[in-house]
Each structure stands twice: as C-alpha cells, then as structure tokens.
Write a structure and sequence with these properties.
Helices cover 33% and strands 10% of the residues. By secondary structure, it is α+β, with helices and mostly antiparallel strands. The strands form two sheets. A five-stranded mixed sheet has the order 3-4-6-5-7, with helices on one face. Strand 1 and strand 2 form a beta hairpin. The N terminus is likely disordered.
Length: 245
Amino acid sequence: MLRRTARLLLSLVMTLSFAVAGAVVTAGPAQADGCYTWSGTLSQGSSGAAVSQLQIRVAGHVGSAAPLVIDGEFGPATAAAVKRFQSAYGLASDGIAGQNTFNKIYELQDNDCTPIHFTYAELNTCNSTWAGGAVSAATAKSNALRTMWKLEAMRHAMGDQPLRVTSGFRSTACNAAVGGASNSRHLYGDAADIGSGPHTLCSLAQNARNHGFNGILGPGYPDHNDHAHVDHRSGRFWSAPSCGV
C-alpha cells in the first residue's frame, strides 16, 4: 500500500509545473524509478527500445485483437493497444504515447519493472535463479515480466480486485514434482495459473481472452478445474469448456 501511495504522489509531482514568482518553470523528463524512463513522444513510425518497453506494458490492452508482438516497431496494433491503455486509465485516447501516458505507466511500475500488483517472487516459487527450465534464466524472467503486465491489465479491467497466482515459472524438476506436462509453458516462464478468489474461475478464463493470451485453459479442460491457466504459446489454444471458452 505504501509503495502504491508513493507512486501516486510521484505522478502528481511529475505532472505539475513549478510556479515561482508568477513564472512557470517546466520540469525535465519525468524519472520514474530505476527501471526505465521515456523521453519525447512515441507514435506510429517510431521504433527502437523505447517502443519495445512501451509494448511490454500495453500488451495486455489488445481487446479481442491478436496478441501484440514485442518488436520495437510502433504500428497500428501498438497504437490500438496504447489507445485502449489510455482509455482504461482515463487519459485522452489518441494512440500517441506522451508524458501523460508514461506517467501513468510509472504509477503502475515498481523499481524492478514489474507492475505494482505483481512480483517476480509471485511468478516464481520454484527457485531464485529462474534456471532449469526450457529456456535461459534471462528469457524465463523476461517472459514472466510480460505475463505480469498482461495480468495487470486484466486485473484493472476486472475492477482492480486481486488475482491470485498459484503457479508461474517451473524448472524441469519443479514441473515434474507437480505432475506438469512435459511441454508445459511454465517451463518457459510465460505461463501463470490463477486460483479463484474475488472472481470465479470461469470469469478469469473469459476475461483472459481480452488481454493478449494465446493460451487459456480452465474448467472443463483436463486437470484445470481448480484454476485458470494463461500463457504466451505461439498459436491460439483456448479451452475452458465449462465456461464457454
């Protein structure tokens, strides 16, 4: 709660200009934290690392469209996701990422790049190194970050009530210990299982369809009657028959 309050206060400071003796002094680029700070404006035609970082954070706002490709190219799909992000948080939805958009992201972002309602530890109860899965430790951790930002978007769309992650990254040993499939997406770090809580499992599976997940499994699918599973597999596979998914 403290970190969220601090983030809100920081955003307020960043969006104000300082008036001294009647003169307005404009602040420089807002520095959010130790993670990433944007400068300038991003719009269609922009490219590079700044766009990639933006795409990671708005990828959960694709609606019914295909998952957003994190490629560093600001095209129509990125503009649409930015518009939905802006609309979701009460900003002018023009599809152009400027200081107001970045300030909102800073409010939602912790010092390690994770969204404020999720943590690396929450997405990895297997080990502290992210090693031992189907990809490198760095890739698994990066995949988990992308998952968290999609979950943040989903959480907000569902009334900002908590989503309870019950399983994230698994090493081969951890996956075997829980009886996971040999090709489980958990081995890649890009999957999360969500347990019931404020929302029913069917509600979770149904809402996940709007937040950029190619893989959705839930009630009615074998061994998924006690959780909803989301992941980033390459092709779409949704199956929660009891929920109409």
